[in-house]
Amino acid sequence: MDVAPIRLSKTEEWSLAQRMAAERDAFGFYFSAHPVDSHRHLLAANRARTYAELSEMALPADSRTGAIMAGLVEEARWRVSQKGRRYMLATLSDSSGQFQAMIFDDDATAAIEAAAKSGSCGLLTVELDKREGDEAPRVAIKRFQPLESLAKTTRLQMVITVADATILPAIGRELANAHGGTGLVRLLLTMSNGGDAVVIAGRDFVLDAELAARIERLTGECSVDLAAQEPLRLALVG
Questions:
Q1: What is the bridge-based pairing of β-strands 138-146 and 121-129?
Q2: Interval 139-180: pLDDT, tens
Q3: What is the pLDDT of residue 97?
Q4: pTM of this prediction?
Q5: In the structure, what pLDDT confidence band is assigned to residue 133 with cuts at 50, 70 and 90?
Q6: What is the three-state SS of 148-194?
Q7: Cβ neighbours, 10 Å, residue 23
Q8: How far apart are CA 17 and CA 7, in angstroms?
Q9: Domains, the chain, ranges and CATH?
Q10: Cβ–Cβ contacts within 10 Å for residue 57, how many?
C-alpha cells in the first residue's frame, strides 16, 4: 500500500529566547536551557556559582559569607519583619533550581522590583548565612546588575573553529549584521597542509549567545566559544 510521505511545513527557526519561552508555556519550566544560561560567558567571567553549588558550601556558623551568583527574578513582594523592618522577599531561579532571597538595601530593592516586572536576569552580589538545622543557606541580595546591561559593558570574544572553508561566506553574512559593538571575533582555520591559521575577523561586533547559536548551526561539528576577553597584561621593560 502506497502511503503519502508526511511533509512538515517549513517554519522559521526560533531563537534561544523564543524556544525557552515556549518551553515554559508548554511545560511550566525550562526544558533545554534556563534564561540565565544564555549569559554563561558573563557568569564565567564573574565567577558566578549556582544556588546548588552555594548550598553545598560549608558555611561558618553565626557569620555571613559573600558570593556571586545569577538568577531570573520571577516574583518580588514586600514584607515586614517581626521587628517592624520593611524588606523585600524575591523568588528567583537559575539552572539548578528555584530559591528565595531577602533584600534590604534601597538600590537593590528598586532593581529587583523592576526586574520582577520585566522578568529579567541579573548578576547577584549576595551574602549567605546558615543557622543550625537549616538545610539550605539564606540569601540576602546586596546588589543586582541586569545581565543585558552587563553584556554591553563587558568586552567579549568569540572563537570560531572552521574545518570547512565553504561555510565562511555564511559565517561572514551572520557577522555582517553584528557590527556596532566591542567584541572580538577570531576564526581558527584548518589549512589543506594540515596546519592551522588564525584570522581576526574584526573587533567591533555585538556578541551574544543568540549569534553564537546561529553560527554553531552553520559550523555543524565545529565549535563556537564565547567568553570575556582576557585583560591586557603589561610587561615591565628593564
A1: antiparallel
A2: 999 999 999 888 878 888 999 998 888 899 999 999 999 998
A3: 87
A4: 0.71
A5: confident
A6: HHHHHHCCEEEEEEECCHHHHHHHHHHHHCCEEEEEEEEEEEECCCC
A7: 16
A8: 27
A9: 21-149 (2.40.50.140), 155-228 (no CATH)
A10: 12
Average pLDDT, the chain: 84
CA–CA gap between residue 92 and residue 100 (Å, rounded): 6
Residue 78 is which amino acid? W
N residues, the chain: 238
CB-CB neighbours of 21 under 10 Å: 15
Strand partners, 143: 125
- d(C-alpha 123, C-alpha 121), whole Å: 7
Instruction: Pull the grid cell for residue 162.
Output: 572552521
> pLDDT tens digits for 174-224?
999 999 888 999 999 887 777 789 999 999 998 888 888 889 888 776 689
- Chain centroid offset of residue 10 CA: 30
Nearest residue to 215 (alpha-carbon basis) of 188, 181, 180: 188
Residue that is written with C-alpha cell 567579549 in the block:
156
- Strand ranges, E, within 51-110: 65-80, 86-94, 97-103
Residue 45 predicted with pLDDT over 90? no
Q: Which residues pair with 186 in a beta bridge?
A: 159, 200
> What pLDDT does 54 receive?
92
54 neighbors 34 (Cβ within 8 angstroms)? no
